[in-house]
Amino acid sequence: MESQTTAPAARPVRHGWPTALVLAGAMFLVLFDSLAVATALPDIGAEFGVPPAQLQWVVTLYSLTIGGFLVLGGRVCDVWGRRRVIVASLALTGTGLLLSGVAGTLALLLVGRVMQGLGAAFAIPAALASAATLFPDEPWRSRVFSVVAAAANTAGMAGAVLGGVITSYLGWRWVFIVVVPAAALAAVAGLLLLPADEPSGSRRERLDVTGAALVTGGLLAVIYGATRIGEHGPGLATVSPVLAGVLMLNALVWWERRVRNPIIKPSVVRSRRLVASCLAFGAHSAAYAAVVVVGSLQLQDVYSLSAAQAGIALAPVLLGAVISAAPAGRLVRRYGSRRVVALALLLCSITLALVAFGTAGSLTVLVVYLVLWGLSAGPIYVGLTRECIGDAAPEDRGLASALFESTTHVGGAVSVAVYLTMIGAGSGYSSTQFIGAVVVGASVLTTLLIMPGAPARDPEHRA
């Protein structure tokens, strides 16, 4: 597989807000069904006559595909061009949505979900890399990352809320079908508004197929094994995939040191901003799992809520994230990413500890703490993406975006496995959530110690 390397030049964008909305729209559309489909699972199971053990693959396959293919998607968009990847990913997502909506069997539905996951795995790093490259200067860079963060968080909230409404009034198939026209429209808008991919010169770069297979297989195995541990507890059958994945990732390190054009460039992973951002984002993902996964179980078990009621009670988490994304860019420009992210992580840690031990059985107090916890998410996402992706060279921003986003899938899967194993062993919900608070608290220190204080600037604009 060989193609001309693309590195879009950092140049002013003629249509600032429309371009920003296209990038945000791509994020929204590929993530909307991540939570919406969960509300439709009972109806899907009733129509196809399948037990819950098989139904969970409707959600799991989607998550596995995103987590496993993110790094490959990030490198492909660097090599083949971001606009091409965004448009193709939206087309693939729309096709997968349509196939899922008209599927006559569970197998076809699962194929559609894999197609949606692949579309998301390629669209997410391409959209983030485009945001950093097309908007190299402030205040636009922070504005665009704020809009993208709000879109990503809104997608989850809209999916969680609207998924149940659509399923109740139109049927589960419309959870997928209603998004198809929007995906097609977004693909056309991407062709019209996003600048054409420009070659960086005569240099040609071969895509590292062996490295792609190792990183994709390794991530798939780790996430799959962690998911199975969370469902069934530790054992030979569940731990073996994790060990196999770790071996593949170790083989990847050995291989990448010897190949001419590695899929993961050493210069990218040596960035202190990227390392600090990935550690912080992984810790935040562990906290998110403590709130959403453990919190959902707690709401149903302790507060006697139904699954649907638990979802509504957790909605303020996403609402807080959307609200806090709006001023996050302004805060980052004024005070710097390291300071803003560290304070947001501290808020995340404190409020999660309050969720764990400070509610005294009051659902109202719990919801207030959930809103406060959600307020930490916007500044964390905006600040970390700005630093991590903005610090990378323009031709490597897809890879940096993918490495950054992959930490949330790996961190989330591993933390869920740990939490559910602890609960299965007799640990209470509060003590399990407190572990998440401690992990995020530790990430405050790693952010302050590892992340440089000066704001990241576009390499093309550095003195």
UniProtKB/TrEMBL annotation:
The keyword DNA repair does not apply. It is found in: Cell membrane. Residues 19-455 form the Major facilitator superfamily (MFS) profile domain. It comes from Micromonospora parva. It holds the Pfam family MFS_1. Its main location: membrane. This is MFS transporter. InterPro entries: MFS (IPR011701), MFS_dom (IPR020846), MFS_trans_sf (IPR036259). The lineage of its organism: Bacteria, Bacillati, Actinomycetota, Actinomycetes, Micromonosporales. The chain crosses the membrane at residues 20-41, 53-73, 85-111, 117-135, 147-166, 172-195, 207-227, 233-253, 274-295, 307-328, 340-357, 402-422, 434-454. Keywords: Cell membrane, Membrane, Transmembrane, Transmembrane helix, Transport. It comes from the Bacteria.
